[in-house]
């Protein structure tokens, strides 16, 4: 820490060679930080894409008044992809999942179960991770 006194001897300013301010420590800059082509220079939140990547619940479940049984999960509609919903529809009674209740009436725990799955069925996030899946 370096102190700089003004000519009047009363006022002074402090300077530091550390990259911190008000208790926040910053990463020391390097040449890589100034290149958009380098992962070191990319924003840690959006990873340099300018947008945060994720799953849009409104696109997955466009009509929240539908139940899982009625096809609330849009990508699981249709002849082939409906196979992803069948284990949930078949085994939902084993873990007390209300397949006939509209999505907007499900509790947060039930919604999390739908997205993450359990030992009886694979959730929607697993569906997105299948290699060769054309609906992702």
Can you characterise this structure?
It is a single chain. This protein is of the alpha+beta class and 136 residues long. It is built from four helices and four strands, in the order E-E-E-E-H-H-H-H. Strands 1-2 form a two-stranded antiparallel ribbon. A two-stranded antiparallel sheet has the order 3-4. The protein is elongated and about 80 Å long. The protein starts with a strand and ends in an 8-residue tail after the last helix. The C terminus is likely disordered.
What separation lies between the terminal Cα atoms?
Answer: 53 Å
Global mean pLDDT: 82
Q: Helix/strand/pairing class, anyone?
A: alpha+beta
Question: What is the oligomeric state here?
Answer: single chain
Rg is: 26 Å
Largest sheet: 2 strands, antiparallel
Strand order of the largest sheet: 1-2
Q: Count the DSSP helices.
A: 4
H/E element order: EEEEHHHH
Q: Which short descriptors sum up this protein?
A:
136 residues, alpha+beta, two-stranded antiparallel sheet, 4 helices, 9% strand, elongated, disordered C terminus
């Amino acid at each position: 820490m370096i102190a700089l006194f003004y000519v009047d001897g009363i006022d002074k300013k402090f300077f530091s060679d550390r990259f911190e301010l008000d208790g926040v420590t910053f990463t020391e800059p390097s040449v890589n930080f100034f290149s958009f082509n380098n992962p070191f220079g990319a924003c840690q939140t959006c990873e340099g894409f300018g947008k945060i990547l994720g799953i849009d619940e409104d696109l997955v479940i466009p009509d929240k008044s539908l139940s899982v049984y009625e096809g609330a999960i849009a990508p699981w509609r249709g002849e082939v992809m409906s196979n992803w919903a069948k284990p949930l529809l078949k085994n939902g009674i084993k873990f007390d999942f209300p397949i006939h209740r509209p999505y907007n009436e499900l509790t947060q725990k039930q919604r999390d179960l739908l997205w993450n799955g359990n030992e009886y069925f694979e959730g929607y996030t697993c569906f997105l991770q299948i290699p060769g899946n054309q609906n992702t």
